[in-house]
Amino acid sequence: MAAPKVTGLSPKEGPPGTKVTVRGENLGLSSQDVKSLTIGGFECLLYVEWKSPSKIIVRATGGIEGGDVIVTTRSGGRGTCTVQFRYTKLSTGPTKELAVWVDESHMLRTSFGRNRPTSPSELHPNDPLELSDEANVGRFPVEELHDTFPDGSGNVLSENFVPMWYLLENHHGASFDDLKAGLTCLRRKVTQHQEGPLSFLKSNVMAIVECFQVLESLQTAQKKDKQEVGTDLTEKLEEAVVKSKKEADSLFEAVLARKDRADATRNALSALQRFKFLFNLPASIERNIQKGDYDVVINDYARAKSLFHNTEVAVFRKVYQEVEQRVEKFREMLSERLKKLPAPVDEQKRLIRYLVNLEVAGDPAWDLMCYIHNWLQDSMNSCKEKHLVLASGESEENQNLNDDDLENDMPQVIMFVEEVVSLFETHFPDFWKLGQAYLNGELYSREVNDSRDKKGVPKNTSFQRMAVNCAIKLCNMVRAALLSHTLKTQSVQQSQFLGNWSQLQAAEVLIAWLPHSIRCIRECYSSLLKLDLPQEVLKLVQQLLFDLRVHSLTCLFTQAAEDVRNFDVRETWIVEMDDQNGGTTQLPLLFENRVVETLQLVREIVLKSGHQEQEVFSQINVQATLKQLTQSLLHAFVQALRKLANSDQKTEMYKEYSKGQPSVLLEQGGDNNHQPPPPLVRIIFCASNNGAQTKFRDLERTLSDTYLERKCGPLVGKIEPSMYIGQFDWTSLPLPTGVSLYVKETLMNMIEIHAEVFAVSPPFVSKVMTRIVEAVAEEMARLYECVHKFSPNGNVQ
């Protein structure tokens, strides 16, 4: 038969007394065929249990390091081994039960030349160097040993034994000569151990003799007991064992009680150490909340919940309840922080994630949408109330200020519009982006089956309604401040809620600030276009912007018409001569400048359209309104001209003109109380030179008739009295030597009118003088017809 061969061990390591299953080939034909089985050189044949030629169970009886497992059979001889068994350190104690005999030789210490047993608790080997420790002062720092030899150990029985560690720990104060002497002692022990059993017997002859004597005395005592008791010695032995047990119990009862208490304490400490995470969790939660490490709190809570949520251990359940209380306060704190607005979007997203991970009741993300909607509505109301109070106080102060100060200071209603639009423009986009992220599932949110709000409305519909309500709120507030006439459909209660701004601010002051308001709303509208908003929201702001532009158009033309209507007080009657048109005053230029200024403002404010803004003149009603406003502006200029036509103020032009006339003409007129000529000629020229002759034809005709009436009446009325002055008689006239004085006077008056008209407007001379000549000719013909008879000299005259 072939030699035995060991190929496997189970287990491959263990303390002395471990049962080892040996597997291999040719391990014997029977239990009698197995001659020897050694583990690391130690015989274990007494504990062999043969199972089959390929399996043997053996108990490892001794050894320090282990080694090869060799099987020797009678049929195959000495075998071989491909695996090794390794012994591990066995910790023993006075109360621990063991299945094998423990080598206690290392528990003996030489003291005063004799071997005396030491306490069983001192389970450490003797010093292999046998050196005295008197030179050691204090202990070598263990921390330095661990730092120097991180993987080493000073235990001679350990696999990681490091001699330098052992020397530093036990003999750091020994001299070099002492260490040499210890090395010599160690070598001698090794040499004795290598000499084998014969050397052991030689060195322990007395001990062996004593053992034989003890065995002989035991045999003698056994024979004596058989004679006294009989062949059955177990009964007496049992009594002795029971008695020994009782004495041992009485002796070790206190020790065992202390051991039980120590075991209980050790188990409690072990449990505390093992579950220290749970016991330290309440304090850890408070500490991390104060530090702001919310993620750590949430992770620790999730871990504790997964481990101890359904625990039946009372102490664990009590600690976990305390953890739940701390976490519930943490939830309430996060919920309160979520309600504090305004807040950055990133912080709001973090708070939602925290609340969702903490499994707070409800839907934190949807609650945030509602919070922002309500806060935005309340903020706009607060802004309105604040500015209403300031506007009421400002209206009282404005009574003591002049118009210039009022125009320079921004009205409170414009400040309100600017602030409320800025508030909406700043916070509404964040509100919309958060809502879209929530509805698209991009926001941290708990998966719920119910996609409706508390009223049963789908959340996407409810959110769009929130956005529309905010836009309606903004538009109504701006309309109440600037376009109160567009809110006629609102109830009285709604109008009072929006505020009565018209009573606190004059409309004339607001006209100059309408462009600023339009720019603010246009910037807000541009920012809203960047969002994916529903058309309902965009149309609200777009219509507000359109109405405000139309209102600005109306206000600009209305204010221009009012200014033109009061041009009569600004007329200085300083005439500027022109080769083509004659003399003109500054009135047409004032009118032209005012119209150009108005049209410039209309082009910059009203006609200029932003992205996706409706064209103002695309609607027919706006075109009709513009036509009426233009007509009213021209009518205002006509009214100013009419005021000037009825004015009697003297002009510098007339004074300069009268200084240049010969005094003879004044003497011939016989009237030194000349009234200044009314400014009808200049007004007529202004009307005809305006470029809008069709609109001013009626005014021109009226002014011409009035001027001619005022000039022809006095001129024609003086002809008859001048003709018959000095008892003039057509039948008794002397031979005439020249024309009569009445003819000269009439001609001089006509020359005066001609000079007056020519000084103002040469093109107007023919039209005026034709009418004057016709009136004089008609009057002369009438007077000649009234004469019954002319003398020959009268006929010549």
Structural commentary:
It is built from 28 helices and 15 strands. The chain is α+β, with helices and mostly antiparallel strands and 797 residues long. The strands form four sheets. Strands 2, 4, 5, 8, 9 and 11 form a six-stranded mixed β-sheet that branches. The longest helix is centred in the N-terminal third of the chain and has 41 residues, at 234-274. It is rod-shaped, with a radius of gyration of 64 Å. It starts with a strand and ends with a helix.
Q: Tell me the overall shape.
A: rod-shaped
Structural class: alpha+beta
DSSP helix fraction: 55-70%
| Beta-strand share of residues | 5-15%
Domain Exocyst complex component EXOC2/Sec5 N-terminal: 126-652, 693-797
InterPro entries: EXOC2/Sec5, EXOC2/Sec5_N_dom, Ig-like_fold, Ig_E-set, IPT_dom
Keywords: Exocytosis, Protein transport, Transport
Family: Belongs to the SEC5 family.
Question: Can you give keywords for this protein?
Answer:
797 residues, alpha+beta, 6-stranded mixed beta sheet, 5-stranded mixed beta sheet, 28 helices, rod-shaped
List the helices and strands and how they pair.
Layout: E1 5-10, E2 13-14, E3 19-25, E4 34-39, E5 42-43, E6 48-52, E7 55-59, E8 66-73, E9 77-78, E10 80-81, E11 84-87, E12 108-111, E13 114-117, H1 142-148, H2 163-170, H3 176-194, H4 197-203, H5 205-228, H6 234-274, H7 276-291, H8 294-308, H9 314-339, H10 345-357, H11 364-398, H12 403-408, H13 412-439, H14 459-482, H15 492-498, H16 507-511, H17 514-529, H18 535-565, E14 576-578, E15 582-584, H19 587-607, H20 620-645, H21 652-659, H22 663-669, H23 680-688, H24 693-717, H25 719-723, H26 741-760, H27 765-786, H28 792-796
Parallel strand pairs: 1-10, 2-11
Antiparallel strand pairs: 1-3, 3-7, 4-5, 4-8, 6-7, 8-9, 8-11, 12-13, 14-15
Helix pairs in contact: 7-8, 7-9, 8-9, 9-10, 11-13, 11-14, 13-14, 13-17, 14-18, 17-18, 18-19, 18-20, 20-24, 23-24, 24-27, 26-27
